[in-house]
Amino acid sequence: MIPMPNSLDRLFDDALHRGLFSAASLLVAGPSGIAFERTWGTTRRGGPPVTPETGFDLASLTKPMATASLYLWETAAGRLDLEDPLARFFPRRLLSRSTADIRLRHLLSHSSGLPAYRPYFRELIHAPPETRRERLACCILSEETEAPPGRRSRYSDLGYILLGFILEDCGGRSLDDAASEFFRIAGCRDQLGYRQFPPPERAESVPERARNERDRWVATEQCSWRNRLLQGEVHDENAFCLGGVAGHAGLFGTARSVWLWLARLWRWYRGEGAGAGSLGDGMRRFWTRQTTREDNRWTLGFDTPSDTGSSTGGRFSERTVGHLGFTGTSFWLDLEQEIAVILLTNRVHPSRYDERIRTFRPLVHDSVMAAWNADRPAHARPETAKSPATDGGIFRTSRAEP
Q1: Which end of the chain is more exposed for a tag (fewer CB within 10 A), N or C?
Q2: Would you give the DSSP letter of residue 55?
Q3: CA 174 to CA 191: how far, in whole Å?
Q4: What average pLDDT does this structure show over 272-280?
Q5: Helices 175-186 & 69-76, crossing angle to 10 degrees?
Q6: What's the CA gap between 243 and 332, in Å, rounded?
Q7: Phi, psi at residue 90, to the nearest 5°?
Q8: What pLDDT does residue 308 have?
Q9: Using an 8 Å Cβ cutoff, are 61 and 329 in contact?
Q10: Contacts of 168 (CB under 8 A, 6+ apart)
């Protein structure tokens, strides 16, 4: 374990006092394992204390952790090819003129040209549950792209919803089952997975035992649409309409479960462990920035730090991969400095409109990295040119990831 500065505790205590979130979990790890792990706060305002076993709604961390991981697995086995077009998986009559040219690699790297977000749930919630998947697929496939596939990168929930459908159809099983099998291989199935259950309509009608069960998970939003506090129930509305299982959102887990998954991918990247041959080649491909005509910040399923105002702060190297989640979750792995930082919060509790996490994240990352590099000689530290002060917003959508 490495000592963390007292300023880190003060930073979290101050954030709790100012109501940025009610719960937080931080884990720092290197090649040899976990170096620091701590939790702060309560599962909800007035709730019990958070522990390392308390689960968080991981939101868009689902994209790399479930969906991209499964594509890594399927492409390494030769069952899918990144150049496969959507026409292989969906009837051509459902494709618009522009979506017909989209390939799997475009969806994975957010360069499909599909819109970032659509509130499909407003209509889907009124449809019979057994029809929602097909209706949603038709809606997305009929969209006109905002740019030709491969022209530029734009973060898109829609692309990852389609990727989830494709995995289910090709594998002949639910995304939940497929992800569970992958997490078993990664050694984190018991702590990581989708949450599927019919939530109570009214919190006051829940028996005491059920309320205690809900406190295994941190609360997210007091949802005006569902008329209840969300706790152990997926926050994303489109994922909710799909029963909590989708390619873009739906995973719940702990900081340690995120680390166990990330550590396995990191080992494959370094050519270590069972299956490191084809999976190692795949990881090196998945963790390489994809080239588009206008920008190239995304890899296959993973984000990299923006040049200025990154949520990573100013001390991560350019060889860093990670992701943000709308509920206040994130992970970053610096492949050069060999450090992973996993920060989970419920910044949407009680409202999604509090975006102060944008300035909090870089402060945490800078504090962690300063402690991590304290004993390293100056010549061994990478030069960085990113602004450490603020996060200018990586995604600018109606459901942006703060």
Answers
A1: N
A2: B
A3: 19
A4: 81
A5: 80
A6: 29
A7: -130, 145
A8: 86
A9: yes
A10: 174, 175, 178
- Residue 385 confidence (pLDDT): 41
pLDDT digits (tens, 9 = 90+) for 349-372: 999 999 999 999 999 999 999 999
Q: Distance (Å, rounded) from C-alpha 62 to C-alpha 179?
A: 10
Q: What's the token pair of residue 268?
A: 């494959």
CA-wise closest residue to 372 among 35, 40, 32: 35
Domains in the chain, CATH or no CATH each: 6-59+190-223+250-376 (3.40.710.10), 66-179 (3.40.710.10)
Sequence-ordered list of residues with C-beta below 8 angstroms from that of 367, at least 6 positions apart, any chain: 4, 5, 7, 8, 11
pLDDT of 243 over the 80 cut: yes
The torsion angle over the Cα atoms of residues 91, 93, 94 and 96, rounded to 10 degrees, is 120
Exposed (0-12), middle (13-18) or buried (19+): which is 385, by Cβ within 10 Å? exposed
Query: Contact 255/344 with Cβ under 8 angstroms?
Result: yes
The pair of structure tokens assigned to 75 is 């492409």
Residue 144, judged by CB atoms within 10 A of its CB (0-12, 13-18, 19+), counts as exposed
The CB-based long-range contact list for 231-237 (8 Å cut-off, 24+ gap) reads 231/43, 231/44, 232/55, 232/195, 232/197, 232/199, 233/195, 233/197, 233/199, 234/57, 234/195, 235/57, 235/59, 235/326, 235/327, 235/348, 236/59, 236/326, 236/399, 237/119, 237/121
351, 224 in Cβ contact below 8 A? no
Token pair for 272: 């270590």
Q: Which residue shows structure tokens 């995995």?
A: 167
